[in-house]
Design a protein that fits this description.
By secondary structure, this protein is α/β, with parallel strands linked by helices. It is built from 18 helices and 15 strands. The structure holds pyridoxal-5'-phosphate. The site of pyridoxal-5'-phosphate has 19 residues, from helix 12.
């Protein structure tokens, strides 16, 4: 009998996260203050984020960072996640490639975001914080944070993009079930929200409005810290648990990946699965190829520009060195809500610049086609975000069919799609379309990048 699924014993779970910053040939450039243009230090960031997260954010020295025991305990509720050989998908494709996926949909919240929500809440609690706040679009991060806050006895306040809250009501129910206070953004509860509503009473909300409100709450409320579910370096560090487990599980399968693939929003699940393997490219002469799959409608990796830009629409955050489409970029309303971000994380941006990984952009319809094939072969309905990784893996497997190569392909299944069935419904009804953006539109949006 062929083994399909590889799982680690509790005693084999990683006890330290991997920090690729320590091994990068060129370190990521620092975030800078928009007014003074000075690099930001831990103290500048620590009035918003938990201090330990800020230390990790700027740590270019330690390759492994111990996972606090309390966090390891919480990880045990759902880790290890299975590494699965996708035999049925391989057979349907008729490819000689060996396809593996790491199933991060198997946890109480259904996406990888919980891996960073737990340590962020743990550190907040350790530092005497009583409240955490954040923004969320489609709601995966908000849901993970709400759960983690309840685990560590913190109050959570989540600003959810108003239009997403109306379109995806179940995610706000999930957040409230875990005890979070959920507010549609823009709201009348903050000065930023009031200003936005005064200017535009029917504003549908955006990640930009929600970030502004959450940051304002954190900076004006004693004992309240802001948290972020993607883009930042410390989030990628926490997510390395995915790749560190996968490394051991691939060894159990007796294989090593030639290609590692993940979908790309801000880079956390990509960094999570890729960096522990990239370490062996950097240190041990391995030659694995790393592919980040982004939506054709939000192509910052393949068509963006490397520049210092704001992390949010309103321009409240520090300036971050990244591949960006411009912070004013308004992506089409595709169903992979988690991939609609204008910029890439600082580590990833440097790695792309240095040619150590690359992006591919995938049209929306191809992702749903891939998601359906995956559901019908492997029995799991993937999140629309994750379907970008599946589509990229299928492209690689098809290439192997042409060349006859038996490549080992590993991709991350970042989440399941069971709360995204309206998207599948629309696809099945033939109501979805592709959104390719023109060079002129990209040029126009890049004008919002500060000079
Ligand atoms: C948020 C999310 C993503 C995108 O975020 P990254 O930081 O790029 O990983 C991808 N998949 C799922 C299921 C998500 O919830």
């Amino acid at each position: 009998m062929k083994q399909k699924k590889f799982i680690l014993q509790e005693s084999e779970l990683p006890t330290a996260w991997y920090n690729i910053q320590a091994d990068m040939p060129n370190k990521p450039l620092p975030p800078i203050h928009p007014a003074t243009k000075q690099p930001l230090g831990v103290d500048d960031l620590a009035h918003i984020f938990p201090r330990e997260c800020c230390v990790q954010e700027l740590d270019q020295e330690h390759d492994f960072i111990p996972i606090p025991e309390e966090v390891q305990e919480k990880y045990k509720y759902y880790r290890s996640t299975p590494l699965v050989r996708a035999y049925a998908l391989e057979e349907a494709l008729g490819t000689p490639a060996h396809i593996y996926f790491k199933n991060e949909s198997v946890n109480p919240l259904g996406s990888h975001k919980i891996n960073s929500a737990l340590p962020q809440c743990y550190y907040a609690k350790q530092e005497g914080t009583t409240n955490v706040t954040t923004e969320t679009g489609a709601g995966q991060w908000g849901a993970a944070l709400s759960y983690a806050a309840s685990v560590f006895g913190l109050e959570a306040a989540v600003y959810q993009v108003k239009i997403s809250m109306q379109q995806k009501p179940y995610r706000s129910s999930i957040m409230r079930t875990f005890g979070a206070a959920v507010t549609g953004s823009p709201s009348m509860s903050t000065r930023a929200g009031k200003d936005i509503i005064t200017r535009d009473p029917r504003h549908p909300g955006s990640l930009g409005t929600a970030i502004s409100e959450a940051v304002e709450l954190a900076t004006t409320t004693p004992g309240c810290k802001y948290t972020l579910g993607s883009v930042l370096n410390h989030v990628a560090i926490h997510q390395s648990i995915i790749g560190l487990e996968a490394e051991k599980q691939m060894a159990m399968a007796g294989e090593y990946p030639d290609v590692v693939i993940a979908c790309f929003g801000g880079g956390s699940n990509f960094g999570g699965i890729a960096f522990p393997f990239m370490r062996h490219n950097l240190k041990d002469g391995k030659t694995t190829e790393f592919i980040a799959a982004e939506p054709e409608s939000c192509p910052k990796l393949t068509r963006g520009k490397f520049a210092y830009d704001f992390g949010d629409e309103a321009g409240y955050t520090p300036l971050l060195p990244m591949y960006t489409l411009g912070h004013g970029f308004k992506p089409a309303n595709i169903h992979a809500g988690g991939l609609r971000y204008h910029g890439a994380g600082m580590i990833i941006s440097q790695l792309i610049k240095d040619g150590l990984m690359h992006g591919v952009d995938i049209p929306q319809l191809e992702t749903f086609e891939a998601g359906l094939l995956f559901a019908r072969t492997e029995g799991i309905i993937p999140a629309p975000e994750s379907s970008h990784a599946i589509a990229a893996a299928i492209r690689e497997a098809e290439k192997c069919k042409q060349t006859g190569e038996e490549k080992v392909i590993l991709f991350n299944l970042s989440g399941h799609g069971l709360i995204d069935m309206t998207a599948y419904e629309q696809y099945l009804n033939g109501d979805l379309i592709n959104y390719k953006i023109s060079d002129e539109d990209i040029e126009k949006n890049l004008k919002s990048v500060p000079q």
